[in-house]
Amino acid sequence: MRLSLRVKGARLAAAILLTACLGLPAAAPVAAADPVVLTVGTTQDLDSTNPFNTMLVSGFEAFQLTYDLLTNFKLDASPGPGFADSWVRSPDKVTYHIRDGMKWSDGTPATSKDVCYSWGLAMAAIADGKSIGAGYLDPNVKDAGVTKIECPDPSTFIAYTKDQSDRVFQVYVPILPEHVYGKVDYKKIADEKFDGPLVGTGPYTLAEWKTGQYARFVRNPNYWGNKGFEDEVVLRFFPDNADGMFQALKSGEIDYAHNLNADQLKQLQADPKYVAVPGKANGWTQLAFNTYGTGTGKTIPNGGPSTKALLDPAFRDALGYAVDKNALVSRVLGGFGDPGTTNVPPVLSDWHVEPDKPRTFDIELAKSKLDAAGYKLDASGNRLDKEGKPIKLRLYAPDSEGSYAKSAEFVKDWYGQLGIAVSTQVLTSAALGTLVLPPEADPPGTAKYDIELWGWGGNPDPNLLLSVFRCDQIGTQSDSQYCNPEYDKLYDQQSTEAGAQRHDTMAKMQNLIYDEAPYDILYYDANLDAYRTDRFAGWQNMPANGTPMFSYGDLNYTLLTDATIAPSPSPSQATPSPAASAPGGSAAVATPAPATPAPSAGTGDTSGSGSTSPLLLGLVVVVVVVVVGGLVLGRRRAATPADDE
Amino acid sequence: MSAHYLARKLAQAFVTIVAILILNFLMFRMMPGSPDRVIKNPNLTPEVIAATRARWGLDKPLLPDQLIAYVKATVSGDLGYSIFYRGQPVTEVLGASIGPTILLVGLAEVLAIVGGLAIGAYAGWRRGGKTDSIGTGASLILYSMPYFVIGMPLIIVFAAGLGWFPTSGMTTPGMSDQPLLTQAWDLGSHLVLPLIAVTLGLLGGYSILMRSSIIDTRAEDYITTARAKGLKDGYVLRHHAFPNALLPMVTLIAINLGYVIAGAITAEIVFNWPGLGTLTIHALNARDYPVLQGIFLLVAVSVVIANLIADIVYGFLDPRVRT
User: Fold this and answer.
1) Nearest-angstrom CA–CA distance, A447 and A436
2) CB distance from B238 to chain A under 8 Å?
């Protein structure tokens, strides 16, 4: 067969292309003085670099790198130096000292004027009964009970508070440069573009943001605190693509991965090159029972719960015995998470209490409790409510996490064993969020559901999570439609308390919700993060049962050291808490990776070549293609003679 | 081509676009759930929620207020503001994603058209030969493989395993300070794997259709005549069979070019390519109505325009449709 010139040309072109491709990475130019870049991956996209506009964890991570809070967080999540380096608490006020000689990244002196401007935005909004942007930041100031702010001199800021609560040290309001934004009031600040380069006092300031790709932060030359090893921080976004992030971690393109799935984490746990951190998350997944009408006797025409049994605490209590939370943690979460109890997650260890009267998994006990409460079985095994109607519950879950639908199927099975039929349906978050709205909402809804399976995530202070059960949240955030004036009273009380006193009140609240059971908290979720140990050392969990990044504040970004040199014993480099990290992980942090030679910083050296499974998989794919191709070839060849003209 | 034919085609395209515009509006409003309920935040007071709804125009009645406002704004080039990206204009959000998609899918289309037509033509010409067996077999396999099935092994072997290429993304962060050549190099190395995946995914369709088209053409009398004249085999293929076999390809190419804008969704997701495909999935998850509307409008209009071009090109190529 003679090849036409064109085919020859095509072959030549293909050969050149292939050669070019193969030679490409090797020949990639490497600049001499590449900055040391820490690349952190997350499956969440960034929605906004404007602190007042972001609704997402990635947004909080981004603005906290650029801006200081008045008080930041220490490794144990307690208040630490931020824009202020010290403070004095007196009964009605806190007097902050603003660090002497501190400068913004552009060289302008940073003073109390900047604090008065930034907190002033929130104060003005609160005074007008309004909220700024996404409505996440200014309520912190309100919740802290701040009544007045003052800046008597450049190094002093005073916040007057109506009580002694310590929430004033957890106010998530970034201190913005007054000399940049000073003319913008609270009504307009959410519309401001916070495009890089930004001016901040944080360790790394935003240089650029590529939507859906990455945000890059460069070292703030004037940063007042410890200087991290990295010159730049890059947050890389892998929206809806945990697999892509996992591969990027393995190839060394990213140093840290946030929000891996359980299978990926288990793979990494087995590999000494990585430290996998199943950190406790500040949140939970719950069954929210529709208790609409509790206390008020109100009903919704053609809506609301399908049976009055849901309004009965004894009924909900009995159901609580039918849910095996350990099974959910091991079989739905892959073992990463904790069985749920009260409405303050254990990660908030200062406030969380276990219930006084815990329920254990016991289907028979659940049955007898239902019988005792007056919910009998009929002849065909259906559980009847007090009106004599078989109880059939409609359970809805959102599609945002796969674990929701799986948990729902378990619950359906367990309740089924009690004679209670459950229909489960997965909806989009938007549809579910709308479905649970009662007539009190604007626009009014009909709350036509029995159980909502969803979750909540909270602040460093438990107030946010506690508030969901308040009567005044019906129509906005309440998804159990629960109302109990006693609970509201306790809520108001603890808001003004501090220390042991607040702890005791909060313990009462947690027990009240647990016993009344408008929620059955299934499990406390885990944040599944992992990091490489070949380039950076000095990772520390924050708090000890949490994860290094995407927790509170930015401290970890300033504590990283070069993993390729023997660590010098410096006071800032404490050994990481071994409690939550994988076995062998902490050892790998302290010493440079022994097997791999030190890769030159910044080039993203390939150290994944040792892993055999990807190659194996690739090989399998090639073999399959060849075999199938061969079969087709063989068949065609056999068919050829008869086929041809 | 008559002016009448052109006017009719243009009018048809216009009516279609108007219908799309209205359908586009209604479709998204019929989806259950309101975008302001996606995120749970107990901090939000009813006033804030009301203000948010007013900002997105969700407080007004659907018909006619929201529709009129939508059509008015769209015609003036204002596609509204993204809900997920907290108030960025949709035109900006789309604008940032169009480039990467056109680069990836456009380039892949060109490669796939060239490669697919060549393989298909040669396979059809030498029907039953080795090229046909291998080419058609491979085409069928590739044609049936979604992009991510092609893409994932590429990432596992060539990116994560061998480390020859980056696993995902379009650029290395911080490249904007580098010289242009370095930037292009960086972009190129990011582009190789997704480009291969999308090209392979598209190639099969072209090659299969081209093969059957060439086989049809091969039986025509003028081919026999050309051969009888003693013309070389390759010459007959290139100058007699190939141009005539192209006619059915015009439709496929035109329609596919229209879809370039839509992106190769699964490929973009797998490679984290910041194009319109990734944006589509993302906007869907976030119930970002304005962005979704913008994408659908863009895709629909580009498909209509591509079809219009196909009709016009057809008019030139085939005198029978000119009336």
Assistant:
1) 4
2) yes
Give CA–CA dist A350/A630, Å, rounded.
Answer: 66
3-state secondary structure of A174: strand
E strand or H helix at A334: none
pTM above 0.90, yes or no: no
Considering only the beta carbons, identify the residue of B133, B159, B272 that sits closest to A241: B272
- 3-state SS string for A15-32: HHHHHHHHHHHHHCCCCC
Is the model's pLDDT at A638 over the cut of 60?
A: no
How far, in Å, are A257, B267, B298 from residue B272 at the CA level? 15, 8, 21
Taking the C-alpha atoms of residue A566 and residue A570, their distance in angstroms, rounded to an integer, is 12
C-alpha A562/C-alpha A565 separation (Å) is 6
Strands A37-42 and A256-258: parallel
The answer for B 193-232 residues in CB contact with A (under 8 A) is none
Out of A134, A212, A475, closest to residue B279 by CB: A212
Residues A581, A587, A588, A590, Cα dihedral to 10°? 110
CB A532 within 8 A of CB A538: no
| Pair A519, A289: CB distance under 8 Å | yes
Residue A5 burial (CB count, 10 A): 8
Helix (H) or strand (E) holding B46: helix B46-55
Torsion of CA A566, A567, A568, A569, to 10 degrees: -140
pLDDT tens digit sequence for B117-155: 888 888 888 887 787 888 888 888 888 888 888 888 888
The domain defined by B99-286 folds into MetI-like fold (1.10.3720)
Q: A156 phi and psi, to 5 degrees?
A: -130, 135
For chain B, which residues make up each domain, given as ranges?
A: 99-286
Chain A residue with minimum CA distance to B218: A645
Contact across the interface for B164 and A618, Cβ inside 8 Å: no
> Could you tell me if B137 lies within 8 Å of chain A, comparing CB atoms?
yes
